[in-house]
Design a protein that fits this description.
The chain is mainly alpha-helical. The chain has two domains: 27 residues; 52 residues, Multidrug-efflux Transporter Regulator, Chain: A, Domain 2. Helix content is 56%, strand content 12%. The chain has a three-stranded antiparallel sheet with strand order 1-3-2.
Length: 95
Amino acid sequence: MSKNKFIQFIQVNPDDYQNAIIDSVKEVFENFKETINSDNSDKLLTREETCNFLKIDSSTLWHWTNKGKVIAYGIGNRRYYKKSELLESLKQLKK
């Protein structure tokens, strides 16, 4: 929803009021989906960023990496994870 968008309710019936709220919520969710599916999905995340993104502990990330549930890319002793592959892994877990 735009910051400058105002809705004024004067003599509005409950159905119109409910529809206005539903439309606003749908707009917020659509914007959220666009943010999730944006082009930065190939962005590389560090271990810490990956743990924060997935809301998991670093030991869980280590186990998932060793079991092949997520793919790590390395440079030296640094590990990175592609955001797009993490999202794809989450989709596979839902099946």
